[in-house]
Amino acid sequence: MKQVLVFVTDGFADWEAGYVTAEINKHGTGYQVKAVAIDDQPKISMGGLTVLPDFSMEDVSLKEIAMLIIPGGTGWREEKNQKAVELVGACMERDIPVAAICDATTFLGKHGFLDDHEHTGNSLPYLKESAPEYRGDENYINAQSVSDGFLITANGSGALEFSRDILEDLHVLEGEGLKEWYGLFKEGFVKS
Fold first, then answer.
1. Residue 64 CB partners (closer than 8 Å, separation 6+)
2. Between the CA of residue 139 and those of 119, 147, 153, what are the distances in Å?
3. Residue-wise pLDDT tens digits, 102-146
4. From CA 192, how far away is CA 190, in angstroms rounded?
5. Given a cut of 80, is residue 192 above it in pLDDT?
6. What pTM was computed for the model?
7. CA contacts within 13 A on the Cβ side of 45
């Protein structure tokens, strides 16, 4: 069974990966969701949930990873979490898909991972201000979520579109089933 890793930091935005992890982790998908962090210490999300990582970065076996999902949150501004660049780089070198949302896209921009790929983020001005090293202006797309080969990015209000793109990339849901799933969560049982 392949693993989908969710990178957690103190202050990670727990809701940004909530839709997608619930679908990926269902029986029969062929995937198992696991948490990874810079170390093996518990991480507390923005919502106050404590997560004990399954792996520290040093313990990850890349041959078992199907995708790395990186939620946003306040942790990406901390210097200690910049170590995650090693895992992201290793994944991208091996064509293991990386999916980042909200401030995790800013983290990717800071380290040059967005420069040569179509992507989005919270906004182009925000990305340029928060990551002065960013050089991907010409590849920025003003959208909720953008999928470009092995890179999926989304803005902070695009958790549902982010999830849709990940589910499609992993072939967990496709075609009409994916359209129905997205429609249900986007529109609800009762239309307002």
1. 2, 3
2. 6, 12, 12
3. 999 999 999 999 999 999 999 999 999 999 999 999 999 999 999
4. 6
5. no
6. 0.97
7. 20
